[in-house]
Amino acid sequence: MNNIDLIVVGSGVMGTFHAYHAARLGQRVLLVEKDAKPVQATVRNFGQVVPSGLGERWFGYGRRSLEIYRDIQQEYDLTVRQNGSVYIASDEEEWQLLNELYDRRRAEHYPCHLLSKTQTLAKYPVLQAGYVRGALFFPEELSVEPDQLIYRLIRYLTNKYNVTYLTNAPVIDCYPTTGGAGITLSDKRTFRARKVLICNGSESRLLFPDLLLNSDLVVSKLQMMQTVPMPQVSLPGNILTGLSIRRYESFTGCASYAQLSTPDHYAELKKWGIHILFKQALDGSFIIGDSHEYAPAAQAEDLDFQIRDYINQLILTEAQRIVQFPVQAIQKTWAGFYAQTKQEILEHDVNDNIHIITGIGGKGMTSCAGYAEQSIRRLLPELYTA
């Protein structure tokens, strides 16, 4: 290949949306993936696009992401469905936080509706009545199928924007060249471009390991599971619960958050970073999770590959307190791994033409589309007029 403008290393949601925004501006893009297809955090999540749960900077990126997802969906089916998100409070403290977030999001002109207990149970009759105190509904938020979206998005880019996509192509070196940058693959092929962008997710050992392994990157391990199809059950949209209210960034900025207590029955769940989410897939099955265990990037192997049945049982026991359908009817379980950092994201310019972006944490599916648009503006300012 000749005359490449941008090489993007990593075809997860972060790398692919950077490729998308660059290609829309007429850039000749090479997207490189070390595996046969993306198999890490981008496909091992709920497929919830929920800006409502993010802190202020990321809330803005999330709102823009909603627009981008909808725009592409009009042209090409990414599995995007606008069926909203609902946060379900289980006690008075969580209900107070929902009221405070409602006031803030309304002031930001972000559509939302408070639901009483009666209204919540009428809208979601499969919830356990004893769990529900009230709810906050965001009608504009989206659901996608995480095991399908990224593959469809890549096909869309290659078909519409002529993005070149290489798989089974680990990049083992990245280096400056005259007027640009180059990469070397494990099979010794080399490619050059004006710029290289490395979106490496939780992979920290192939490229610039001294930088990444000595940064504050942390790898998080999440346990999730999926039930058998239950087409007779209807629980549409993104379902977030009391533990989500106690965990998500948007609520930490609420006035009453500092006085939030921890009920005894939440103590063991919080120890394992558990908060309960549900998302019904197109086949009627439910994704349920999740938990969080952490290790520095240099010690990521400490998290191991095993699924802890004890953690899954904690998740399912709490889930059964929330919904009436048989959550124990599990067909598969898995662990996902993503990188995060105290700075919210790691953005590092190796030089003017080699850039690293990783460590977005659990915000990727919700905010990458909008974030990558602004990131390309920073990395390729010459493409924008004043």
TrEMBL record:
<keyword id="KW-0285">Flavoprotein</keyword>
<protein>
    <submittedName>
        <fullName>TIGR03364 family FAD-dependent oxidoreductase</fullName>
    </submittedName>
</protein>
<feature type="domain" description="FAD dependent oxidoreductase">
    <location>
        <begin position="5"/>
        <end position="373"/>
    </location>
</feature>
<dbReference type="InterPro" id="IPR017741">
    <property type="entry name" value="FAD-dependent_OxRdtase_HpnW"/>
</dbReference>
<dbReference type="Pfam" id="PF01266">
    <property type="entry name" value="DAO"/>
</dbReference>
<comment type="similarity">
    <text>Belongs to the DadA oxidoreductase family.</text>
</comment>
<dbReference type="InterPro" id="IPR036188">
    <property type="entry name" value="FAD/NAD-bd_sf"/>
</dbReference>
<keyword id="KW-0560">Oxidoreductase</keyword>
<dbReference type="InterPro" id="IPR006076">
    <property type="entry name" value="FAD-dep_OxRdtase"/>
</dbReference>
